[in-house]
């Protein structure tokens, strides 16, 4: 019994040890990244200092470039930069976040939550896609922005072109306003339009539509 308890104790402490090791390793990585980016050494990162990180780190924007292939790499980088600052600073209301300076702790929290975690990484990507269409940055897509969003599905080089699951444009549009716009204000927030963004961006429109239809039938 005592031996078993000892073994259990050893097992638990090695799990804790591993966790601590991983945690410390991530912290050290953040510290190195931060030090390299903080060119003026004032202990905070401005937008320009962070931009260097985004530029050199494809993980932050390449997914966006692949999925929205009409956007230039520079545009994708600037979208990712905007989302990073919003998430790291906690100021998601448009322009205000852009003046924020990011501390090492904020950078670390952003990395662990949105880069080193698969689910968080997906959330980060969804936010980038959303921001690509929320051109005025007011956190919802108005009718003009929704029109641009719909272009993704219907442009001549769209991966959905000729896909039988893709409904006619006006039907998809109707679907968005009738089924996804939960509070019927003709403004689509990320949480309302997410089902069209999910997956590796919008691959499964009909599936998303079915899901929402099933959900609304079940309610
Ligand atoms: Ca600085
Ligand atoms: Ca908008
Ligand atoms: Ca709405």
Distinct helical segment count? 10
Total number of beta strands: 2
SSE order, one letter for each helix or strand = HHHHHHEHHEHH
Q: Under the CATH scheme, which class of the largest domain?
A: Mainly Alpha
- Low-pLDDT regions: 199-204
The SS-based structural class is mainly alpha
Q: Give me the side-by-side strand order of the main sheet.
A: 1-2
As for the number of domains, it is 2
CATH-derived architecture of the largest domain = Orthogonal Bundle
**CATH topology (level 3) name of the largest domain:** Recoverin, domain 1
What is the typical, i.e. mean, pLDDT? Answer: 85
What is the overall silhouette? globular
Q: How is the main sheet built?
A: 2 strands, antiparallel
CA-based gyration radius: 21 Å
Bound small molecules, by name, code or SMILES, are: calcium ion
Strand percent estimate? under 5%
Helicity, as a percent range: 55-70%
CA-to-CA gap between the ends?
53 Å
Structural summary, described in words:
The relative contact order is 0.08. 67% of the residues lie in helices and 2% in strands. With 219 residues, the protein is mostly helical. A two-stranded antiparallel ribbon has the order 1-2. The chain has 2 domains: 1-133, Recoverin, domain 1, CATH 1.10.238; 138-219, no CATH class. It is built from 10 helices and 2 strands; from the N terminus they run ααααααβααβαα. α1 (2-37) crosses α5 (104-115), α4 packs across α5 and α6 (118-133) crosses α9. One calcium ion binds at residues 38, 40, 42, 44-46, 49. One calcium ion (CA) binds next to β2.
